[in-house]
Amino acid sequence: MCGIVGYIGEQEACGILLNGLRELEYRGYDSAGIALLEEGRITRFRAVGKLDNLVHRVGEYQTSGPVAAIGHTRWATHGKPTEANAHPHGLTHSQVVHNGIIENYQAIREQVPGDFLSQTDTEVIVHLFESLLAEQPDGEDAVLKAFRATLNALHGAYAILLVTETRPGEVFFARQGSPLQLAQAADGVHFASSDAPMVGVCDQAVYLEDGHWGVASAEGIRLFDEQDQPAEPITAPLLATSTAAQKEGFRYFMEKEIYEQDAVVSDILTGRLTETGVRLDELPDGWLEQFTSITLCACGTSYHAALTGAYLLERLAKVPARVEIASEFRYREPVLDPTGLFVVISQSGETADTFEALKLAAAQGLDTLALCNVDNSSIVRAASHTVLLRAGIEKGVASTKAFTAQVMALWLLAVHWGQVKGVLDADTGGREIEAMRRVREAVAIQPRVHDRLHRLSKRYLHGHGFFFIGRDLFYPLALEGALKLKEISYLHAEGYPAGEMKHGPIALADAELFTIALMPRSRLYDKIKSNVEELSARDSTIIAITTEYFELADDIIQIRAYDHPMLEFFEMMVVCQLLALEIAIRLGNDVDMPRNLAKSVTVE
Ligand code: F6R
User: Fold this and answer.
1) What CATH number was assigned to the domain covering residues 446-604?
2) Statement: the pTM of the whole predicted model exceeds 0.85
3) Mean pLDDT confidence for 317-345
4) Is residue 486 annotated as a catalytic residue, yes or no?
5) In angstroms, what is the span from residue 399 Cα to ligand 1's centroid?
6) Ligand 1: which of 601, 602, 603, 604 to mutate, judged by most atoms within 8 Å of the beta carbon?
7) Torsion of Cα atoms, 311 then 313 then 315 then 320, to 10°
8) Does domain 251-444 bear CATH number 3.40.50.10490?
9) d(CA 301, CA 400)
């Protein structure tokens, strides 16, 4: 969601903050702003829209000398993306940036005096802070106490940075349910951030837990836990070089990430395949055998990976599998199998709903496993065990290579579990391993196919909707294909199990309804063919993704023939991703930063 950065030091701070925000822009790009506390005075810049507008607004301004500074890039939750709603929010002597949601902001607005200039929940933080500070008796720790009292009054989720002219050189921070890290360079505390833009600049990351709060200055960090006891910072070295991704000649990060999927598959398989089996060294020996069921929980694209995983786990490991959308699971009062395994799947490791679902399962005493792309993320740190996805940084807001890695990880888990449980015979296991080794080939982009999709895309820029249909493993893929298209093209698209069309949705069928039919040769071909025939009979325009010639298709995107459904799955997945990309580019959309979205959803 929003991204926040902070800096304390003597280097020119505008450039440092803007570079940090550039790294965090994937988290939100409705507006951005910075506040610089120099010589006891705060200067603030804010601008609507992408970060470049803020860069333009800051212009030639530079800091010189010691500075404590904060910055923010926003994904709007409360109030429209306007300059008045952009962070930092200030009052007379303080400025605050915030990621998360203050649930009781209306009640606080009624309590604290003063005019509010924005529609945001965040602005109450600074009003409350200044009013509580005014009530504090003077003393060395008056500001720290007022900051703590402010936090006590807030309900909801937050990562907060605050600067005040009453304490030059200090940045007050707090983390509750939204990600925040600090980082130190050799000569002191330098950065705070929602993610890791300090990579390459700082040597040590300081990971904060929920409930942690305190104040950072050039002298060091004063860190407190939820009970206000001094807490020991958890530090870890940061890599020496920046891992910031570059587009490397591709038009968009999303395109580059689609093309990287063969390398991602190699990485995720490295060291995990033996001649006949799967090794998952992350999981203790004998650990999986104790579980009688598996619950897979996630959001969005990761949820689609979970659905795919459920088919694989039931088929290969014969373990009852259920799949949950994290935002529904949280409030459903779910009854969990006490001897079941609870698995969360998340690219970012920071998705609020998934994180809370994980905590809920752990609180019921279940063992938990995270399949996650970001080491040291909140989800990784909270799970009992983790299998890292090894997909590399994913910058495009629409997830592509992380989905591939998630499905691969679930497939590895299913085969491994089937083998250790003794339900997967050697022949079937061998066939799975052989197919896994060929996924690289299935996801490698064939220029012929990309070129065809580019040409074809011009016919599908209108219409009243797309139906992606599939059966079995190809049903979650249909959901994912539809999600990719709607996210970046803003065209209406739905994924449906092909057999369900006649139970209602077929009423929409006409020539302007585009049906993208996932027709694998290796699984239920004749069944899906009949479903497509029903749609064709109602004049729906059919785009078939298949190995065969199919006379009813208005357009065919031909994939290679494979003898394993997962290979057809992965090749069709690439087709869906590229089709969405090409349609969105033709429509002139910003593929990497589609409207209304953000990469990491740290609010519920
Ligand atoms: C879609 C997309 C989202 C995420 C969802 C969960 O392209 O990226 O639907 O999959 O927000 O995010 P993670 O996987 O980070 O928990």
Assistant:
1) 3.40.50.10490
2) no
3) 96
4) no
5) 6
6) 601
7) -90
8) yes
9) 9
